[in-house]
């Protein structure tokens, strides 16, 4: 059959997406040098609209296996231009937030993550707040099931909500057309030392199995995965030296480590905490049925469960050598009070399920359409913590139970593609309508009996927060091939947002909040010009409106290690983003330069109140970011010097991101936007001397960052800081025979110690064995 070679950027190279029948989906794609607007078609599904008006990068399954020590699905993004996932350890289920060009790792709601078009981004909240987390649900995808990952930068497609201000990430997973099976096992080891007094050996095991096939109109895919992981300590209890009182009161202790906090105030580190042991299971079933040669029905069921235990270690020793965990202490002639929960324990238990259904036409004639729906359900989501001090807490006793059972979100959507002049016509019109709905329900109670296993005491309410939000939308965009050299995309998105049922409660008070509603239009525009046979220029402009999440509006909590002040009157943040790009086909690779600019009004931020453990969410009047991104990748670049199988890639990003106006905090005006570094870079090289060997060296760099709006956290290389980093990774993969392969890798070879509030992993060794049918 005829194949339409249309480029989809994969690893920076122009890969074609083919118009295929169900029988030839597995055919290897050919390379194409055609540049311009990216067009997405073909048998493998994607959430992306057919016409992509801006920068898109991607990576294929083969590239992930060759050059990345991938232990979690988010690792596929490790060397993407301008992207960073705040992954603290293998299996990080509650803090792995995606950062993009002009959005830091505190802004999870400013990017969109899908798996086969099913929403994984968690818009119940933003970042880390009110005792819970809002990272994308990466655990619903495993590295072994990834077919490819597509990343679209910026809010330039009308198909996506205002959360796309940073990027849109879509994981496309396996759907085979013949029998295939895979089994893999991996081990990782992190010998960590000298991190604010902590040291240890932290390891993880991972095993997976998958099988899939096609028989007539039916096809299926089943994937199972188990992870058993130990993290390094992530928090460090402390007291400020200025909080001490001169005198002899308190138990004299030794072992406290003197140092400076992020604002250069002297403090004592008292120990290490939040060291997780997490055991996670994942199961995925995908079914598809071809009703006709051009109409497919599909269903996806994802299941994820997690059991995690957090423990703590005190450095403090009393006069007779006993470990001290709480109460009045005395250090060098000053007395301090250590809270009973300073060295906290925790027990997390979660079972989440994901459902997705779709009915999709792919005739590729005048009109195609798709109907889809998805559901993400917190069937069980509980956290238990003691309210008494160690060592007694390790044996049981009083505590609290935080319960989020029933929280979740659901989506329904209808979209179509109309080609009024046929497949080769001048216009391709994409359009759609849908609704996204979110429910947050967090209840915290005292526990009857043992905090580790006792039931919640309904008469001992500590706090309760909850609410709902819903967005209804319509969108359309027209891709117009003006001439052989010119192409444009014009789009418009309308969103109608409501927030309702908001409430907060404690044992002594209860508050309810009025229903809110707003509607906004977001126009989009793009233009591409084929300057020369191998050179394309692009310009894109888009408006995005990011509505406040339920957690930001209603998620207040008090007490415990973290507290959060909500704001039911928050305004939506409104951004205008633009970019200019030049792409040059180099024959064996692609070079791209992109100038980008973003202006955001009423930016939504959660900030730690200085000197406390309480965060407050606020609107920042205006944030402005201007930057330049360079990206390059090429294959077989060593041919000219007789070196076969050498592939290279890399990126460099410069961003000037500043707070322009902020009446609520004038000291922040003129300061850097939190967690957005001025410089960041990636580079990788893969050498394949034979068909069996693939050797990769890769590096990542990020410059200076700040966590506070006023940039007062000048000491970045400590707990709660956001430091620069430079890490080097190695990977060697060997194809033992047709079915069996092995890999060995080292992440952070140079053992760089760096922070993003919590410490990142030190040097980590990985080894894996894989069998493929």
TrEMBL record:
<keyword id="KW-0732">Signal</keyword>
<keyword id="KW-0798">TonB box</keyword>
<dbReference type="Pfam" id="PF07715">
    <property type="entry name" value="Plug"/>
</dbReference>
<keyword id="KW-0406">Ion transport</keyword>
<keyword id="KW-0813">Transport</keyword>
<feature type="domain" description="TonB-dependent receptor-like beta-barrel">
    <location>
        <begin position="330"/>
        <end position="749"/>
    </location>
</feature>
<keyword id="KW-0998">Cell outer membrane</keyword>
<dbReference type="InterPro" id="IPR000531">
    <property type="entry name" value="Beta-barrel_TonB"/>
</dbReference>
<keyword id="KW-1134">Transmembrane beta strand</keyword>
<comment type="similarity">
    <text>Belongs to the TonB-dependent receptor family.</text>
</comment>
<dbReference type="Pfam" id="PF00593">
    <property type="entry name" value="TonB_dep_Rec_b-barrel"/>
</dbReference>
<protein>
    <submittedName>
        <fullName>TonB-dependent receptor</fullName>
    </submittedName>
</protein>
<dbReference type="InterPro" id="IPR036942">
    <property type="entry name" value="Beta-barrel_TonB_sf"/>
</dbReference>
<feature type="signal peptide">
    <location>
        <begin position="1"/>
        <end position="19"/>
    </location>
</feature>
<feature type="domain" description="TonB-dependent receptor plug">
    <location>
        <begin position="51"/>
        <end position="168"/>
    </location>
</feature>
<dbReference type="InterPro" id="IPR037066">
    <property type="entry name" value="Plug_dom_sf"/>
</dbReference>
<keyword id="KW-0675">Receptor</keyword>
<dbReference type="InterPro" id="IPR039426">
    <property type="entry name" value="TonB-dep_rcpt-like"/>
</dbReference>
<keyword id="KW-0472">Membrane</keyword>
<keyword id="KW-0812">Transmembrane</keyword>
<dbReference type="InterPro" id="IPR012910">
    <property type="entry name" value="Plug_dom"/>
</dbReference>
């Amino acid at each position: 059959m005829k194949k339409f070679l249309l480029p989809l950027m994969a690893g920076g190279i122009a890969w074609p997406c083919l118009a295929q029948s169900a029988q030839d989906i597995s055919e290897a794609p050919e390379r194409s040098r055609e540049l311009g607007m990216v067009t997405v078609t073909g048998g493998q599904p994607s959430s992306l609209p057919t016409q992509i008006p801006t920068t898109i990068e991607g990576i294929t399954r083969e590239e992930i296996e060759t050059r990345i020590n991938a232990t979690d699905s988010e690792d596929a993004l490790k060397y993407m231009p301008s992207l960073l996932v705040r992954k603290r350890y293998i299996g990080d289920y509650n803090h792995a937030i995606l950062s993009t060009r002009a959005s830091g790792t505190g802004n999870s709601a400013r990017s969109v993550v899908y798996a086969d078009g099913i929403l994984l981004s968690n818009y119940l909240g933003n970042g880390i707040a009110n005792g819970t987390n809002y990272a994308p649900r990466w655990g619903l995808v495993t590295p072994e099931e990834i077919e490819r990952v597509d990343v679209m930068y910026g809010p330039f497609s009308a198909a996506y909500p205002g959360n796309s201000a940073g990027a849109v990430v879509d994981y496309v997973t396996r759907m085979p057309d013949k029998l295939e099976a895979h089994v893999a096992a991996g081990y990782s080891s992190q010998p960590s030392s000298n991190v604010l007094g902590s040291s240890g050996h932290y390891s993880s095991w991972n095993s997976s199995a998958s099988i899939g096939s096609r028989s007539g109109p039916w096809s299926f895919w089943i994937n199972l995965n188990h992870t058993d992981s130990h993290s390094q300590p992530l928090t460090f209890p402390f007291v400020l030296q200025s909080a001490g009182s001169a005198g002899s009161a308190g138990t004299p202790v030794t072992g406290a480590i003197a140092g400076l906090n992020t604002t250069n105030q002297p403090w004592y580190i008292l120990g290490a905490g939040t060291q997780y042991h997490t055991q996670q299971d994942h199961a995925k079933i995908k079914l598809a049925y071809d009703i006709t040669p051009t109409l497919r029905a599909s269903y996806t069921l994802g299941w994820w469960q997690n059991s995690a235990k957090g423990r703590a270690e005190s450095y403090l020793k009393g006069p007779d050598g006993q470990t001290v965990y709480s109460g009045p202490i005395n250090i060098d002639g000053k007395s301090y009070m250590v809270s009973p929960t300073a060295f906290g324990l925790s027990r997390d238990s979660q079972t989440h399920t994901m459902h997705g259904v779709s009915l999709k036409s792919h005739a590729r004639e005048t009109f195609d359409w798709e109907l889809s729906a998805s559901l993400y359900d917190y069937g069980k989501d509980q956290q238990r913590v003691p309210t008494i001090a160690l060592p007694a807490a390790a044996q049981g006793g009083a505590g609290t139970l935080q319960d989020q059972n029933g929280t979740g979100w659901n989506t329904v959507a209808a979209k179509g593609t109309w080609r009024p002049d046929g497949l080769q016509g001048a216009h391709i019109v994409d359009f759609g309508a849908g609704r996204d709905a979110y429910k947050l329900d967090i209840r915290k109670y005292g526990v009857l009996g043992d905090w580790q296993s006792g039931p919640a005491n309904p008469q001992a309410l500590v706090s309760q927060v909850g609410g709902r939000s819903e967005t209804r939308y319509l969108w359309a965009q027209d891709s117009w091939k003006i001439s052989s050299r010119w192409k444009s995309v014009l789009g418009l998105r309308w969103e109608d947002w409501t927030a309702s049922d908001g409430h907060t409660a404690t044992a002594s008070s209860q508050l309810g909040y009025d229903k809110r509603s707003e509607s906004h239009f977001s126009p989009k525009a793009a233009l591409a010009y084929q300057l020369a046979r191998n050179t394309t220029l692009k310009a894109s402009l888009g408006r995005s409106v990011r509505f406040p999440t339920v957690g930001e509006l209603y998620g207040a909590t008090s007490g415990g290690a973290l507290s959060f002040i909500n704001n039911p009157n928050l305004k939506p943040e409104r951004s205008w983003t633009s970019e200019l790009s030049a792409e040059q086909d180099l024959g064996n690779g692609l070079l791209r330069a992109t100038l980008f600019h973003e202006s955001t009004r009423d930016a939504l931020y959660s900030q730690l109140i200085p000197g406390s453990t309480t965060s407050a969410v606020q609107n920042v009047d205006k944030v402005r970011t201007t930057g330049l991104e360079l990206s390059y990748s090429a294959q077989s670049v060593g041919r000219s010097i007789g070196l076969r199988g050498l592939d290279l890639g890399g990126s460099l990003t410069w961003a000037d991101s500043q707070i322009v106006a902020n009446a609520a905090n004038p000291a922040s005006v003129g300061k850097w936007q939190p967690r957005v570094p001025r410089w960041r870079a990636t580079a990788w090289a893969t050498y394949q001397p034979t068909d069996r060997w693939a050797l990769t060296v890769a590096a990542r760099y990020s410059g200076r960052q700040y966590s506070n709006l006023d940039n007062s956290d000048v000491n970045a290389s400590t707990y709660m800081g956001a430091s620069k980093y430079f890490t080097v990774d190695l990977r060697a993969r060997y194809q033992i025979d047709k079915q069996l392969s092995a890999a060995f890798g080292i992440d952070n070879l140079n053992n760089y110690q760096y922070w993003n509030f919590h410490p990142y992993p030190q040097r980590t060794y990985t080894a894996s064995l894989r069998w493929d049918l």
